[in-house]
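Re: the 236-residue chain
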Amino acid sequence: MPASLDGKLALVTGASKGIGAATAVALAAAGAHVILTGRDVRALESVEDLIHSSGGQATIAPVDLEQGDGIARLAAAVGSRWDRLDILVIAAAYLPNLTPVTQIEGKQFNRALTVNVLATQALLANFDPLLKRAEHGRVIGLTSSVGSAPRAYWGAYGASKAAFEHLLESYGREVEKIGDVRVAIVDPGATRTAMRAKAYPGEDPQTVKDPQTVAARLLDLLVNDFPAHHRERVGG
């Protein structure tokens, strides 16, 4: 991998806020052209403006991950403009209300499974050809500790993240012998995001790290590269 991301094409889901936005800004600052995806067009435009004002390159591509055909259209649009995708960062996620397993609300659970699981499979399926055309295709998926360590009241989200991790790890094992596409699963740990505030409304946000800290670590992984089946938790 090169010492910078000059000339690389990256796509970041959930790029309108939080870790996704911070990661998009960091990748653009390192030289990548970043495709910003999310549902909030105004928020995406704000991130795009920030990148452009710093001399970086970005393109917004609004998409609703709950709509499977939207992901297919996004991949087709990217493929019609570029011949490859070097980096895919899956940062978007949906957190349903924290409840006992016996009281999980079906509509919210379905949404979590759609955004966190079905959309992940659709992203991998639709962008796989473009990732394989890159010299070093890299995928980073952001997870949560509850995906591997069940916790009371987190059953709905944890189940979706367990499936999310399983899909990414399976994909990584399927492609490792037929090219140079690698997958990393990263748990950002406690981070100052809207999702964290929803889960811990009484927490002082200043007691946890900011999204830029996580973005810096993801950038480091992409610039210096990582081994196949890489997993880590970002400290701090």
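The helical segments are 18-29, 41-53, 68-81, 106-133, 155-175, 194-199, 211-224.
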